[in-house]
Fold each of these.
Amino acid sequence: MEQEKQSRRSFLFNLGIISAVFLATVTFIRDVIAYLVPPRKKKKFHKYLVAEELELPVGQAKEITISKKPVFVVRLKEGYKVYSGVCTHLGCIIHWEEDKQRFYCPCHKGVFDKYGNVVSGPPPRPLDQFEVIVENRLVYIQVEEKPGGPWA
Amino acid sequence: MSVKQWIKERFPIDYDKFVEINERIFIKEPIPNHMKKWFYCAGATPLILFALQVFTGILLTFYFVPSPEMAFESVRHITEDVRLGFWVRGLHRWGSNLMIISLLLHMTRVFFTRAYRKPRELNWIIGVILFLLTLTFAFTGYSLTYNQLSYWATTVGTNMIKEVPLVGHWLLVFWRGGEDVSANTLTRFFTIHVGLLPPLIIFFISLHIIILRLHGVSEPEGFEKGYYPFYPHHFYKIVIITLFLLAFMSTLTIILPPGLGEPADPTVTPFHIKPEWYFFPTYRFLKLVPLKVGIYATGAFLLVMTFWPFIDPLLAKTEDRRRLWAYGVGGLTLIITVILTVWEMMVA
Amino acid sequence: MDTIKAQQWLIGIFSVLLIVVLIIIAGMEMKKSREYKPEIEIDKMTAKCITCHEKKGIAVKQIDAWKESRHAVMGIGCYECHEAKEGEFDAMRCPESDIIVGRHPTPKDCSRCHKKEVQEFSESKHAHQFWLFKNADRAVFEFPLATKHGCEQCHQIGNLWPDGSVGECDACHAKHSFSIAVARQPETCGECHLGPDHPHIEIYLESKHGNIFKAKGKDWDMSYSSKEGNPIPIEVPVCTTCHMDGNETQPMTHNVSARLAWESQMTWSFRTVWNEDILGDWQVKRDRMTAICNSCHAPDFVDTYFLTADLVNLQYNEIRREFVRWTKKLTKSGLISRLKADGKFYSNPVLNGWDEVPEHEMYYAWHHEGRRFRHGAEMMGADYTQWHGIWEIQEDMIELITWAAEHGDAEAKKWVNSDHPSKFIPYALYDIPGNVWGINVKANTTPFVYNNYPDYWDRVYKNVEAAYKQGLLSEKQWNLWLKRYKNKDHYMGLKYSADSTWNYYKQRNEYDLKKMKEQVIDFTLPGKPFYKK
């Protein structure tokens, strides 16, 4: 009986020490991982002017650059659409073919229609779009705000 | 047991023999009784600190950029922007300081207990080499932050090398990667700090330990003869030291976070430039005497220190007299070092 | 210490300590010594402008200023504002190109995006070119060239452009960084609101608000937006805080007239009717202002403060009434004359005319001193109400009457010869028992009118009541005044006695005077003077 008590106490003691060391190790590793993995920042967006409402005729597109990547501003009957110019397949840059009213990716012959949907070829999903805001007849898109400098 | 079996088939070593060797070398390593006193195990501390330095150092290279334009900015980035960056940098910075402190303590202890005596002379010399390598680590590492103080410490420090006889100029050009402190100097220091020195120091550390194990730990007098196994007693000691060091250095980082200083400006030398505290004795000494004398004297001191285990028996015939010599020389060195350090600390 | 058990304890203790330290560390953040500005995209058109301007070295600093702006971040480049079509008033063809640019973007250009702000501005008095509606004014006194870089520079803020839009946004929103912080800086308002006729920046800097701003404001971020209905983020107000910025209860506005209850810059102080249909009457405007004041002050303080300032405005009218009476009388009697050419008058006995002393004094007592007296009282500029204000107005009046006496006006002669102190108060008075700042036990024992006219407060009561009935004071203000009137003894400190303290200072004062007499007044030099009397 006495012995049993003794061994239970020493079991609890050992358990306490082992879990303290374990927790210390886990906390340490957590802090190291936190150091190595940049935190996911809350994305901040701002409006970015891309066109005037009547600047383009319906069915025309213009190419602009955002964050060093091409972006297509297309005026459709329904209004403005703004697509990332990066093919959703393997990241090549698409072309706008006005006569066919479609986007074409030269790398693997991916074709998107003017709404950004995949018509043929290997792209797995439609083109990425920017949120479009029209205010006072000016067309803005929502762009992620990135700090300048080497660490962006 | 199928997992064990699976491994055994693919890694066909003599498993029992492996366990046996492992037990003999590590778990049941005989530790002499006196090692139960904390005073006698300061040798493990620098080893643990070195391991932590390797770890935090690798972490720092994830963000550090060794170029004159980016070095300071990336250190700032690590310290201010990167999550917990100040902690990793603080651990590395405090680690370097504590490593030198613990080495000084270890060496002092070894010297005064005269553990360097035959047949352990070589291990003392390797120890001195390890100490010098650590100082080189500290000097090159300090330069990488590329702030005003580190830039000018690099300039002044490398300029001194020029005074070394015969090969001085050659050494200067080697360290600087050219006649002047330039981008080459920074990349060189970086490569030396993270590429060249670590394998070198690991080699000497291994040698240090192998020789130690071959001879066994030198046993001072006045302790009951006898041994106890490495595990668990000594193993626990190492765990305790590791935990203590991590907690201690993290606390130091909270209280005294690593600073940034001013970005390096090669056109302006700041009014008060000082090396890190462990160079204070040398720095003060060099201010007192002409540069040439200073360099030669420092060189001579290093030579005497390195070959002391061979010099010591030449000084007297009996052990008692030799001990007196060692105490005298050691004590004098200690006092002069402390005086020079404190002196340098006091003056602006 | 050396047993296994003890070592295990140590392991446990240091583990727990390490956990604690690591958790503290994980929650810490270092102060940042550097913040990167948002990345900007330079579109093709803007890049074209920049390349050419840099090559030719034309206004290149403006490119840097633009890069600092929020416009740059939002893709508003050069041509978005400088767009123009052939034939427009400011159209210009850029040399060596076929780009037509507008040299001068107007509020119409700004309103493409900032519609509400431009609209609000156009409904404010900033946009009102009042001086063009007034017969001649100083145009006879100052020749046109002097006004180009004089009046016209400040009044450009209300410019009427060929495209029909009104105003000059960059008067406050300095181009091309269009920084909110710059627009909000008091010195921006003070570019124009300074000097002898409306020393508003001086009044602000004299006030407690300005004092604290000068001491601490350099560390404040003044680039905040006040559109969102957030609490005022700065410790004391700057000009825009009260006149334009929003707080939790008031929306931000570009209409600087939206919160003003007086036309106190005018010849007479009258309750504003400016854009009543849009902005409401003066009481609504005053409520807008107090809604801002109440962010920091107790309502009782704010109301008493403004009531006192309002009485100063009303008092000004009574003083002016005397000036007008004199200039009219002197004109009628032929002592002063109106300027005229080709049957048209170029001066006005109740407004301007500079060639005769009474006209001059009257002009100053309105346009300079009269405004300082009133605006100082409204914005905590004690020295402008006092020495630069009422003191100089009274001197103007004395000089006017003295001039009339010298030129043979009988009433003026009688005034000059009078030796009764009341000669300096030839008008009715307003007053309020005590002041807003506190209770001063002995302050109300000295005024001449308090001591010599037992019906003083009855007269004042009737005047204030009349002003209330005329609609120049609100009912709330009248009640506030009555509360003080009914508790005069309290507010004027008359029912309190602090004689022991009072006597202490009285003794020291007597001692001061005695010593002054001993030291210097009774002191004569032995050497003779040089001029023989």
Amino acid sequence: MIDFRAAGPLEQFEIVKLVDLPLGGIDISLTNSSLWMLIGTGAIILFFVFATRRVSLIPGRLQGAAEVLYEFIADLVRDTIGSDGRKFFPYVFTLFLWILVANLFGLLPTFPGAPHGLHTFTTTSHLIVTLALAMLTILIVIVYGFAKNGLKFFKLFAPSGVPVWLLPLIAVIEVVSFLSRPISLSVRLFANMFAGHIILKLFAGFIISLFGAGGAFALLGIFPFLGTIAVTMLEFLVAALQAYVFAVLTCIYLSDAAHAADH
Amino acid sequence: MLMSNDSGADKADENQPGSLEEFSERLDRMRGAPEEPEPQKGVSAMGRAMRLSTELLAGLFVGCLIGLGLDRWLGVSPLFLLIGIGVGFAAGVLNVARAMKE
């Protein structure tokens, strides 16, 4: 009989330890999440190694794909941050590719019968991962902002043209708004991936349940099946879009840090 | 699109086939329209709504968190929580207003 327990929509987010690695008091075990991070990172490196192995003026397919990705982010960084943006290109490019690949690899089907630890895993569906990325971005914004503008970085919280008696209130609101950035940045990516995968799993679970019911119900299984196809296509869109949104917002925040003194 | 190839073919004859000029001309012709549509344009209002709602909630969340923290530190609960909710809501609206402008 079919094992219906596998249809639990939250089981796909479970962290499974693959290799125990206690380092001092810190647990740095290899989990399925870190395994998929490594797979994603390895795939990106492999892609660029192969894409840039034989560089020619008229690009082949791989080189063309790599150039499209490069120009996409290079244009984004140049348009958003301006001439100061060049030094942030490696960071934004890495961030974009890593999130994109993590999102897309999460949509790969699991090999049938694979042990739980080797199921396809979406690393970006965990808030702690996206929060770490967002915190890194905000940390760079703060460090670069102070390094470039010195104490004038605080002008970011005091927009020009505000009457003096209103300034304390506005400054407090601006500080809270600034602090909310890493949260909105990380929650958006996490929530999109998390919700999408739950919906996907639920729809797919309906197919199995209807087939299990047999008879006329089995025929009805075609509807959740079509739904699953539609949601899968939507998820590919969301995966790419969320990586793009994360990169765009990172650029906007970096641009704020670069131009804080000009306000 | 296809018809415009005729006029381009005459021009291409002036350049030697395989030269850089000829190639870039051919590339321009194949590309057709100079600008591709923006990738985020066609995307549903859903993504936009998601973006705006997280902006609002994140502001409120941080405001409440700071309020609760100050309350616990100074022991004046719930004074700063109430202030924090107000400030957080204002920050959330500010976030949304900025996100709309982009």
Amino acid sequence: MTGQVNTGRPNQLLRNLHSKIASIPMILTAVVIFLGGTLWTVFYSFTNSKLLPRLSFVGLDQYERLWAAPRWLISIQNLAIYGVFSLIFSLVIGFLLAALMDQKIRFENTFRTIFLYPFALSFIVTGLVWQWILNPEFGIQSVVRSLGWTTFSFDPLYTPSIVIYGILIAALWQGTGLVMCLMLAGLRGIDEDIWKAARVDGIPMWKTYLFIIIPMMRAVFITTLVIIASGIVRVYDLVVAQTSGGPGISSEVPAKYVYDYMFQAQNLGQGFAASTMMLITVAIIIVPWAYLEFGGRKRG
Amino acid sequence: MAEVVTLNTRSATAGTATKLAAGPRGKKPRPMLSPRNIMIYGALLFAAAYYLLPLYVMVVTSLKGMPEIRLGNIFSPPVEITFEPWAKAWASACTGLNCDGLSRGFWNSVRITIPSTIVSIAIASINGYALANWRFKGADLFFTILIVGAFIPYQVMIYPIVIVLREMGLYGSLTGLIIVHTIFGMPILTLLFRNYFTSLPEELFKAARVDGAGFWTIYFKIMLPMSLPIFVVAMILQVTGIWNDFLFGVVFTRPEYYPMTVQLNNIVNSVQGVKEYNVNMAATILTGAVPLIVYFVSGRLFVRGIAAGAVKG
Amino acid sequence: MKTNSVSVRDLSLSFGAVTVLETLNLDVKDGEFLVLLGSSGCGKSTLLNCIAGLLDVSEGQIFIKDKNVTWEEPKDRGIGMVFQSYALYPQMTVEGNLSFGLKVAKLPQTEIDKRVARAAEILQIQPLLKRKPSELSGGQRQRVAIGRALVRDVDVFLFDEPLSNLDAKLRSELRVEIKRLHQSLKNTMIYVTHDQIEALTLADRIAVMKSGVIQQLADPMTIYNMPENLFVAGFIGSPSMNFFRGEIKDKGGRKVVEINGVDFAMDAYPARGPLEAGRKVVLGVRPEHVKVDEPGAEIHDAVVDIEEPMGADNLLWLKLAGQTISVRIPGARRYAPGTAVKLSFDMSMASVFDATTENRI
């Protein structure tokens, strides 16, 4: 018992060995793919790789070319419009639906099933359905015209200036059910006594929602916001299915730009630069959130 | 009576004297047709109609013949129901030069989805279990990278993966795609399982260790039998997610292995030939059928899955 | 001479910057029932988990039966453990729960059956063997959990607050049963609890813990009557010991503790050393060591503030020397609030602590 302390202390590497072995896929994914892959792409965005990645550095050339390309500028503009409106509308519609669902209604399950089913469908299916509904020859426009209003015009998918709104309609149809579900969970998480107190105080319902409930649901709103936002940056399949970027290049989005340059135009450098820009966009959204969410908690 | 009188005088102007004469007693009557209810149910029904409309249009269109589509409007029910578009979509619709319909894409998707779901869940559940119960130094760091990675746009990581798979000789193969689905499913599934296993009583794990069970014995004999619901949630998440995938299918497989979504897009958006909207809609329904069935069958578990998996975006 | 069954040497444990246990030493004798007592967060469960091998220690050694087990797996330490939440495997029957560890250890089936049958007999759970834990009551579940430790046929039993999830009645029933079990098995038992009644009734010795340090390790009566410091004195006993802050003074050759101008003679107090005049002290007297309206050496006047009849006892809250004190008297004697009474203190049973070090003097 004397002298040597911790006799037989085993090798720290071998301790918990099974757990470490079992975690190898996770470690590889995290380090090689997520960390390594991201760094690799950022690194190669400073080269003029064409068909194959190669190490001839051109500084910020790719980025200059990118920000001079009309197609990229349209992509960014579309993403901005699509992003702002889809954030606003999905939060508003999602919250309104959730508030309606929270009125102790009958058939709650049926309504939820209806609002949420589009979320189970892929963007491809969503895009193709709305492509058909918005078809000018047979869809809504022609139906309204056949009702007698012959000058009615609603043709977003073939009108460059508003094509992005056509995509927005489809995206909202697909995604608001999810927002509704998250909001409803948030509403259900609020103490019943708050409602009782507000009722005793005689505060009208809309005021209770606006000044008491919504501020209390701050965390839910932020989470939802991050989820919607990271989905927005990725929007790709929907555009491919609904418009293929057309008419012309008027509904292009960054994710499609990346794919096209990497795998179609054989201009990897451009693809890498564009995807790095996407990464930066996401970082701008995520970093402040992560800081508020986790950085603040540590101090608190 | 005195009470009723005071009530009466106070609200005489409201003109509800007759009602009040009886005095409020017992359960408050809640007429189904109050203005409040009309507004709530009206709004909900309107919204429901909007959400159901595309499904209705899909079904209706797929059951019409092309001449009827050209004449009528997309909302009118079919005059003459025909299943021909469905048959054609399944067996003989053309993508480029191939004219064997969606069936090939369907079977490809089955061959992609089943192994991807199994492998990704197996790996992620063990990861989550290791993180919850057998934490080792550095484990949290890798997990943090994994979760942060879930927010990185796929486009940033796609090309390096192409290179890795090419080096391994797996680029373009089904195995390669299964690996890709396992990789990108890992953050959310690991989070899901980690949180679930953390929520199980820790003393159970301790008791099993005192009983002499090791890493794998505890996983298979104690944890697995207790965790069936979360495995179902993960399965729902993965089956719908992988079935609905388009990007990875396009990037990581050769045309003969294209999943159903890719093939559907190729059929509908092919520029050649006359557009057959009824066939297109039948094909669209067929592609959406699997996740829809999963959705309708699983019900509440699906909601739980997306609430957990919402991060996937 | 009895040998040590479990020895803990200079044990330290910290999670990052937080130190949970600090150079802790503890010897548990063979066949002893030792209770680790403390409020939540004092490190008592942590210590038990270290002994069980469920937590890796930062520094120090653990010996069980004179074998260094500091880095052994829990299963190789010769321990059985009973948890607060019972921790029964929900998908297995009672029999499956009892035999799981034995099956993992690959014991022959006949031996497994023999051990399970014996444990079931001792704990009288034979009729429950085929049931699932969800079909059992709380008391039955905890019996099964004890049985799971029993079948392991080990020298040392570890209990981690085993009765805390049970209601008061079941708790006292099982308490008696655990005591009976210890008397018949004569195993070493280490028992963690925050309940002083459990500690006082079950223990051969109690280790009172606070902030990862053992404050006092002694038999229950010593702990109760001669607390080593202010913390132990205040922690044990309900209602709590009465404390008075004062100063030792020399008055006519007699040592007294003066509290707000009232003198308490210290003649009968069994002091460990000289009581130096001028020393600031805390005088502690348990509620049952104050007599009301009975003849005594020294009489103090007080007024009844509140009366709490508790059946067998009657608890009086009185004002004395500007402070509130509680006194326990037989339940039959009643006092209305406002009644003036005469108190006398049994100083032979009192405790005096240094006001700064808080240790007994």
